[in-house]
Amino acid sequence: MSEIAKTATAENSVPFVKRYGVWIGFFIMLMVMPYIFSSNVGLYTMNLMGIFIIFALSYNMLLGQGGMLSFGHAVYFGLGGFMSVHFMNYIEDGSFIFPMWLLPIFGGLIGLVFAIIIGSFSTRKAGTVFAMISLGVGELMAASSLIFVAFFGGEEGVSGDRTMGPPLFGFDFAQDVQVYYLIAAWVFVTVGLMYLFSRTPAGRMANAVRDNAERAEFVGYSQRKVRFVSFCVSGFFAGIAGGLFAINFEIVTEENLNALTSGVVLLMAFIGGVGFFVGPIIGAVVFTLLQSILSNYTDIWQLYVGVLFVLTVMYAPHGLTGIMMMHTPAYRMKRMGSLLVPYLRIGIPTISFLAGVAGFLEMIHHVRSAPVDETLMSLVGIEFDTHSVMPWVVIAILAVVGGYLAKTQVGQFREAWETANNPDAKSEGASS
Amino acid sequence: MLEVLDLHAFYGKSHILQGVNFTVGEGEIVSLLGRNGVGRSTTIKSIMGEVPPHGSIKYKGEEIAGLKEHEIAHRGLGYVPENRDVFPGMTVRQNLLMGVKDMKKQGRWAMEDMFKMFPNLRERADVDAGVLSGGEQQMLTMCRTLMGDPDLVMIDEPTEGLAPKIVAQVGDLLAEIANRGVSILLVEQKLAIAMRISHRLYVMGHGHMVYEGTPDELKANDQVRKEWLEV
Amino acid sequence: MFELIFFSLLNGIVTGLLLFMLASGLTLIFSMMGVLNFAHASFYMLGAYLAYTISIYMGFWVGLIVAPILVGLIGAVVERYGLRYVHRWGHVAELIFTFGLAFLIEEVVQFIWGKDTKAYLEPEVLQFPLFTFFGQNFPAYKAFMLLISIAIFVMLLLILTKSRVGLIIQAAIHKPNMTAMLGHNVPLVFMGVFGVGCALAGVAGVIAGPALGTFPGMAVVLGSIVFVIVVIGGLGSLTGAFVASLIIGLLQTFAIALDYSVNDLLTALNISFDADSALRDLWSLSLPQVAPILPYLLLVLVLIFRPTGLFGNRET
Amino acid sequence: MSAAIELRDLRKSFGPTEIIRGVDLQIEKGERHAIIGPNGAGKSTLFHLISGRYNLSGGAVHLHGEDISNLPPYEIYRKGLSRSFQVTNIFPNMSVFENVRCGLMWAKDYKYSFWHLVDREHDLNRKTAQVIEEIGLTSRQHIPAGVLTYAEQRALEIGISAAGGADVIMLDEPTAGMSHSETDQAIELIRKITDGKTLVMVEHDMGVVFDVADRISVLVYGEIIACDTPENIRNSKAVQEAYLGAEAED
Amino acid sequence: ADTIKIAFIDPLSGPFAATGTNGLREFEFAADTLVNAKGGVLGGQQFVIVPFDNKISPKESLVQLKRAIGEGIQYIAQGNSSGVANALTDAIKKHNKRNPDKPVLFLNYSAVDPALTNAKCNFWHFRFDANADIKMNALTDVIAQEDGIKKIYLIGQDYSFGKAVAAAAVKFLGEKRPDIEIVGNELHPIGKVKDFTPYATKIRASGADAVITGNWGADMVGLGKAIGDTGLDVPIYTYYAAKNGITKTIGASGKNKIRLVHEGNDNPPLNEEITAYYTGFKAKYPDMDITQYRIANTVGMLADAMEKAGSSDPVAVAKALEGMEFKTLNGDILTMRAEDHQAIQPIRISVHTDENVTFDADNSGFGLVTESTVTAADSALPSTCKMDRPS
Ligand SMILES: Nc1ncnc2c1ncn2[C@@H]1O[C@H](COP(=O)(O)OP(=O)(O)OP(=O)(O)O)[C@@H](O)[C@H]1O
Ligand SMILES: Nc1ncnc2c1ncn2[C@@H]1O[C@H](COP(=O)(O)OP(=O)(O)OP(=O)(O)O)[C@@H](O)[C@H]1O
Ligand SMILES: CC(C)C[C@H](N)C(=O)O
Ligand SMILES: [Mg+2]
Ligand SMILES: [Mg+2]
Q1: What residue intervals traverse the membrane (chain C) (predicted)?
Q2: Which of B99, C209, C213, E71 could disulfide-link to C48, CB 3.0 to 4.6 Å?
Q3: Could you report the predicted ipTM of this complex, rounded to two decimals?
Q4: Distance between CA atoms of residues C204 and C201, nearest Å
Q5: Chains touching chain E at 3 or more Cβ pairs under 8 angstroms?
Q6: Residue B96 contacts residue B129 (beta carbons within 8 Å)
Q7: pLDDT tier at C275, thresholds 50, 70, 90
Q8: Structural contact between residues C215 and C55, judged by C-beta atoms closer than 8 angstroms
Q9: What separation in Å is there between the alpha carbon of B204 and the centre of ligand 1?
C-alpha cells in the first residue's frame, strides 16, 4: 500500500473487488482465524496481536506518517486501559450501565483528551525536542502512576471483571474466543479508519510536514496544527488499544504506560516498516509471535530477540515490509521463480550456520546454568551429553561449514538478484 | 600532474562516464565544457572518489583511483563542489578552518588572504554559514578548499548564481590561484570566463571527451561549439 | 537537621558527578554524532562487569584502567561494524539499533555473568571513612569518585575546546562526503568519538559498580535519566551537562532527604481535606515520593520554555 | 486601489548588522517585478520578510492594502501570497503528484479536514493533474520528488508555489543552475503560470530579467538604489557600477 | 506414567531475577528429591516444574497464567511479590468461576501480604509461608526485649508487602513497646532506587537506634550497603536480608547486627534429613543456597495431599490440604489452617554472623544462626477470612 501505488488508483473505474479485495480478505481472515488456531495459546496470541496492531498503527501515525519520534506513546495506551478498567468496575458495581464491548471508546476518549493536553505544547516542535518531551511526559506519567494509587492502583494496578456487563448476542466475554471476536471487530474498524485517515487532507499534510515542515507553512498549513491533529487522532486510537487490553487481561498496571511499552511499540512499528501502512501490522504480528512462542522453546530467547532486532535494523532498514516490497519488481516481471534456487543456495547454509550458533549458545547456557551433575540436554528432540566432545564438534561443523558456504554464495545471490530486478535483462536471467 | 585514462563511472546501472581521457599539467588551467548532464561533475566526483571510479587516475604519477576521499585530499587535490556545500551550522571562520588539513603547516593561503579577496566574508566571519547569501556561500566554498593548500583544485561551476560583478571577481581569483602555482581544473557554463583564463579546454559529450584545444582554437571551431555547446 | 543537609549536599554532589560521568560520554556521542545512544547505560554496565572480573585477578586498579579501554574498544567495534552501517538509514534507525543493542548487552551480560549481584568491592585502600561528622561517615571511596569525575570534566573540556575534533564531527554529521573531501578521515573520527564516549561510560561503570552494586539491572535503573541530563543541559554543551548533572543529583537527594508533603503545606495554611476523596493521593503527596519524577518534570518544563536546554544553542 | 505589495521602510537586522535598511517599494497588481542586486544584498532576505519566514525588525508589509507584517507564513499564504525558494524546497519523499496536491489543498479549502478522502476529490485531483501538465512533469508524476533531476525539481518548486492560484507569486532565482534551453522553458512556464497575476522575482540571469520584467528594482546593501523600467535600468550608471560591473556588455 | 505439571510463575529476568531463579532451582530440586526420586505420587506420576518468567509484573503474570492454563497446567506456584500474588489470586478465582470444569490451584510459597489470607482469601489460594503479620509479631517480640531501643526507623518497598510490614510494625510496636518512637516510616519505589545513600543518611540523621525493613532482592543489597557506608551501627531487623548476593555484600559490616525472621532454620542444622537436603542442593548448585525453605514444604505437602485425595484433581487436592498436618524436614509440624489457608508453623529469628555456621550463604563464610524460635501455636494470629467453598 505504498503511497505512490495508491495515487494511481485514484480513478474510480477500478472494479469493486479489486478496490475492496484487500479489505474483504482481511475481514474473512479475521473471522476464520479462531478456527485455525483454536488452542488457548493461539487465542491468547491473536488477542494480543490485535491489540498491538491497533497500538502500533496508531504509533505509526506519529512516526511513519508525521515524522514525530515519540518515546511516550504508551501514555495514551495505558491511560486508555486504566480508564476502561475503571469503567469496567463501575459496570460491575452497577453504578453505570453500559455494554462492555463499547468500553474501548472510553479508552479512546481519555487518550484523546490527554493527547490534546500534551499535544498542545509538545507538537510545537518536531525532532529531538518532540522526542524528548514525549520521553519526559512518558516517564512523568509512569512515575505518577505509582504515586497516585487511587486511580492507578500503585504497583499492583487495577483489575476488573469483563463479564459483568449486559451480554451482546449471548456473548458475556467469559471465554477468550468471544474476546477474540470483540478485538477482531475493533481491529477491523480501527484499521479501516486509520487507513482512511492517511488518505484525508490532514493525513496527507502530516506526510508533507514530515518531509519538509517549513515548506508546508508556505502552502498554507501550520506545521504545528498539522502535527497536533495527527497527534490527537493517534492518541485516540492508542487509547482504544488500551481499552481492549483492559478487556482482554482484566488488569492494567503501571507497565502499560511506562517507557518499556513505549519502546516496544516503537520497535514493532520499526521492525515492521514505518514507511508502509501495513508495516506496523506485520511488526505487531511478528513481535507477538516471537514473544509468545520463542519463549516456549528456550531460556535465552531474549538474547535471540536482541540479535534479531539488531540485525533487522542493520540489514532491513525499511523493516520486514521493506524486504517484502523489495521483491515487487521481480514479482511484477514474473521472475520470482529465478530467485528460488539462489535463495535455496544461500538459505540452506545460512540456516545451518544459524543453527550452529544457536546450538552453541544453548549448550553453553545449559552447561552454565544446569545443575552440576546434569549433563544431558536435549535440543530439537535430540538428547545428548554436553560433557562429551561429539555434540560440540557437530555444532561447530554446522556453524563453520554453514557460515563458509553461505559466504561463498553471496556473490551468486547478488548476481541473481540483480538480474531478476533489472528490467533490461533479457529472459536469459530467468533461465539461469 | 593529473592524468585520467579511460575513466568509467556509474550511478546504479546508468553508465555515466564511458571512457574519459584527459590531463592537467603543472600550473595549468584546464576547463571542462559541455552541456548539462554530460557528466562533467561526475568526472570530478569520481576523481575525488565520491563516485566509485573504474579506470586509471594518476595524480603526481601515483594511482589514486580506489583511495578514500580523505586520502586523495591529503595528496593535494582540492575540490569545490557545485552545490555550495557549506557547513550550515558552523560560522564562516569555522568553515574556513575546516578546510585546513594540517594546522601546523603554513600553506600558500592564510585566512587573511581570503578576507582580502572577499571582504563580504570578513564582515560575516562569525555568522553561521547557513544564513549567508547564495553568492557568499559560493565564495566560502572556494576559499575553504584553498585553505587546505591543494596543488590542484577542481572547481565545479563557481559562478553559478553570482551577480555579474562577482563573477568578474571570481575570474580574478582563479587567476590568482594559478599565479600561486596551483593547477586548476574548471567546470564552467559561462563560456566567457573559461575562454578568458584557460590554457586548454576540453569539451565533453555524453560520457567522454569530444574535443580538446586552446581557447583560440575553440573560438575558431564553430562546428564543435554548435554541436557540443550551447551558444 | 544540619547533619542531614550537609550530607545530602555531599551525596547530591557525588550522585550528580557520577551522572555527569555518564552524561559526558553521552553528550559526546549524542551532540556530536546525533546518535541517541540508548545503549549508553549498557556500556556503563559492561564497564562494571569487566572491571569486576579483572579485579578478581588483578585488583581494582588494573580494572580501573583496563576495563574502560576494553569498553571503549567494544564501542569502537560496535561503531565500525554496526552503527556505521546503520547510519545511512537515518537517526531513527540508529536509535533503534542502540535500543536493540542495549537489550542485547543486557542479555549477553546475564549470559556470561549470570543474574545475581556481583561482589565487586571498593579497593582496600579506599575502604575507610574519609571523615566522620556528627557520627556519620563519609567514605573515602566517594571522595575518590568525586575527584575522578572532576578530572574527566576538565580533561574533556580541554580536548573539546583546544582541538578541532568537535568541529570535524559536527561537519561530518551533515556532510560526511564533503568533510572527507576536505581531507578529514571521517570514519575514523566517528569510531574514535563513539569509542571514547563508551569508554567514559565504562569509567563510570567501573567506579559506580562497587558503590551502587553490580547487577544485571544496573543499566535499566539509570534508565533515561542520562538523556534527561544531556537535554536539560543543552545539546553539545559539556558545561550544560555538568550543571544539569549536579542539579539532578542534588534535586533527587534533597527530595528524598526532606520529608515535606502537600499535607504539611495544607496544614500550615490551615486547610483540611477529605481523607477519602479521589484526590487524597494528591493531598498526601510528599517530596520523597515525587523525587523520581522531578527530573522529568524539569525536562518537560525546560523544553517548553527553552527548547535549546540550559546551555545549548541548537535544537536538533 | 491599493498596490499588490507595499513595503514601508522595511528593516531587518541580524544581531548588530542591518541587512535590510529601510526599503520602500510598491508593486502594482498584475505587474511583473524583478529584483536584482549583488550577492548578499538582501534579496532573499527581503523575500523572507515579505513571506513571513523572518520577523521584521522595523517597518511594515502590506498585501492588497492589508498589513501582514510578522504574520506566520501560512497566514500570509492564506491571504494570497505564495513564494518559491532559492534553494529547492519540496517534499522529497512524496510523489510529484502529491507535492502539487499539497500546494493546492488549502487553496481548495480542505484545511485540516479528516473527513474528506483526497482520492475521492476529483476536482482537486483534476486541478493537480492540470498543474503538473503545465510544469511538464506529467510523465514523472508518480516518482518521488527527491529523485527528480535538478531542473525538474526547480519546475516542481515553481509548480507547488503557483498551484494554489495565489494572486501574488514570488520566485527566488527560478532559473538558477539551469542550462539555456531549460531556462527558456522555465521562462515560458513562468509566463504561463503567472498570467494575470502579480509576479515578483529575484534573478541573476539578466537575459531572463530583461525578458520578463515590467519593472526592475536594484537592491544594493539592503537599500533600493533604483526602481525603473528595464530600459532605464540597463542604462543607469549607478546600476552598472554596483551590480552589472565590467561584464555588463556580455 | 503421567506427569503432574506445576507452573512456576516468578521473575526470571529483571532486578529480581536472582531471587526467582533460585526459587525455581529449589522447586526443581524439591520435586526431584522429595517426590520423583521416591517414585512420584499416585502410583508413579512425576512432578514437572514448568518455569514462566513474569518479570515481577502483575500484568505479565496474568499473561503467563493464561499460557500456563493454555498448556493444561492446574497448579500454579508463585511467591515473589505480593503484588503479583494479589493479581494472580484474583485471576485464578475468576478463571475457576468461568471454567468450573478445569480449575487451577494457587500455591503461594512466599508472598506474605496478610490480605491474601484475610480480606482477599479464597478457596483456591494456599500460603505455605508465614504472613507478614505473623513474622512481625515474632520480630517485635525480640525487639521488645531490647531495652536500649528507643527510636526505630521503618523503611520498605512501596507495594502491598512493604506497606503490610510497615503497618504490622506500627501495630505490634504500639502494643508491645509504646515507648518506642517511630522516627521514620518510609516507602521507596520497588526495584527502581539506584542509590540508597540518601535514605541511609536520613536514617542516620534521624537518630534511630534500630531499623526494620522488609526489603528483598536488589533493594536489600543496596540498602544494606548504604547503611554500612554511613557507619550506622545499629541493629537491623529484616525479613529477607540473606543470600542471593545479599549476605556476601553485607559481609562483616553486618555481623551480629542483622536479624532475620523466617520459617526455616539454617544453623545449627536440626537433623540428618535437612542436612542431607542442604548438602544435596549445594552439590547440585554450588553457587546457590536454599533460600526459601518453605518450597520443600510446598512440594512435599502437595504430594501428600494428592495421595490423601487419591487424585490430582485440584478441588479434591484443595480439600485434602485444608487442615492437613505436615512434618517438615526440620521436624516441625506445619498445619494448613482450613479457615484461611494459611500455614501455621514455627517461626525463627536468626542472626547474621560467621560463627558456628555450618551452612553459609553466598559461599561467604557468613550465614544465619537461629537465636530464638516461636512455636507454631504461639505464632498463629486470627484471620478475618470468609471463604466460599465449592460444594
Ligand atoms: N546521484 C545521481 N543518481 C543518478 N543519476 C545521476 C546522479 N547524479 C547525476 N546523475 C546523472 O548523471 C548525468 C551526469 O551528471 P553530471 O552532474 O555529471 O552532469 P554535468 O555535466 O555536471 O551537468 P550540470 O550542468 O547539470 O552540472 C546526468 O544525466 C544526471 O542526470
Ligand atoms: N539569519 C541570518 N542571520 C545572519 N545573517 C543573515 C541571515 N540571513 C541572511 N543573512 C545575511 O544577510 C545578507 C543578505 O542575504 P540574502 O540571502 O538576502 O542575499 P541575496 O541578496 O539573496 O544574495 P544572493 O543573490 O547571493 O542569493 C547576507 O550577507 C547574509 O549573510
Ligand atoms: C519473595 C519475597 C521476598 C516476596 C515478598 N515476601 C512479598 O510478599 O512480596
Ligand atoms: Mg555539474
Ligand atoms: Mg538569495
Answers
A1: 6-28, 35-52, 58-78, 90-113, 140-161, 182-208, 214-235, 242-262, 282-305
A2: C209
A3: 0.86
A4: 5
A5: A, C
A6: no
A7: low
A8: no
A9: 13
The predicted structure's pLDDT at residue C279: 65
CB pairs under 8 A between C and E: 102
Q: How far apart are CA C212 and CA E221, in angstroms?
A: 9
Of A181-185, D108-112, D182-186, E187-191, which one has max mean pLDDT?
A181-185
State the pLDDT confidence band at B169, using cuts at 50, 70 and 90. confident
Instruction: Among D12, D35, D39, D154, pick the best mutation site for testing chain B contact (most B Cβ within 10 A).
Output: D39
Residues 6+ apart with CB under 8 A from D25: D5, D6, D7, D10, D217, D224, D227
Q: Is it the case that residue C94 has pLDDT exceeding 90?
A: no
Reported as type and span, the H/E element at residue A131 is helix A127-147
Give CATH 1.10.3470 domain extents, chain A.
14-288
- How far does A397 lie from chain E, in Å, by closest CA? 31
Q: Given the C-alpha cell 572491571, which residue does it identify? A: C51
- Determine the distance in angstroms separating the CA of D125 from the nearest CA of chain B, rounded to an integer: 33
Q: Which residues contact E278 (CB under 8 A, 6 or more apart)?
A: E266, E269, E290, E359
Per residue in E12-58, pLDDT (tens digit) is 877 788 889 899 999 999 999 999 998 888 888 999 999 988 888 88
Q: Minimal Cα–Cα distance from A103 to chain D, Å?
A: 24
Q: How far is CA D179 from the centre of its chain?
A: 20
Substitution candidate for ligand 3 out of E19, E26, E57, E82 with most atoms within 8 A of CB = E82
Res. D206: pLDDT tops 70: yes
Measure the CA angle with vertex B71, ends B69 and B72; round to 5°: 65
Interface present between A and C (3 or more CB pairs within 8 Å): yes
E9 is written with which cell numbers?
510463575
Burial class (CB in 10 A: 0-12, 13-18, 19+), E129: buried
Helix, strand, coil % over all residues of chain A, rounded to 5:
75, 5, 20
pLDDT, average across residues C26-41: 82
pTM summary value: 0.88
Tell which one of D45, D86, D206 to mutate to probe ligand 2, the residue whose CB is within 8 A of the most ligand atoms: D45
Cα–Cα distances in angstroms (integers) from residue B126 to residues C31, C314, E313, in the given order = 21, 16, 83
Distance (Å) of CA C239 to CA B86, C14, C233, C244, C308: 28, 17, 7, 8, 14
C-alpha cell at E28: 526443581
Q: Output the nine-digit C-alpha cell for A399.
A: 556453524
A399 has pLDDT over 90: no
Which residue out of B133, B166, B193 would a mutagenesis test of the D interface target, given it has the greatest number of D Cβ atoms within 10 Å?
B133
Residues B27/B197, Cβ–Cβ less than 8 Å: no
Q: Which residues make Cβ contacts (< 8 Å) with residue A419, sequence separation at least 6?
A: A335, A338, A425, A429, A432
Minimum Cα–Cα distance from C86: chain A residue? A314
H helix or E strand, kind and range, residue E227: helix E218-230
Query: For residue C209, which phi and psi values (nearest 5 degrees)?
Result: -45, -55
- Grid coordinates in use for C62? 588494573
**Who lines ligand 1 at CB under 6 A?**
B 11, 16, 34, 36-42, 82; D 149
Query: Does residue A178 have a pLDDT over 80?
Result: yes
B35 touches D183 (CB < 8 A): no
Burial B90-104 (b: 16+ CB within 10 A, else e): bbbbbbbbbbbbeee
Q: Is residue B133 within 6 Å of ligand 2 at its C-beta?
A: yes
User: Taking CB atoms and an 8 Å limit, are A139 and C293 in contact across chains?
Assistant: yes
Question: Does the distance separating the beta carbons of E249 and C221 come in below 8 Å?
Answer: no
Where does A14-288 sit in CATH, by number? 1.10.3470
With a 6 Å cutoff on the Cβ, whether E33 touches ligand 3 is no
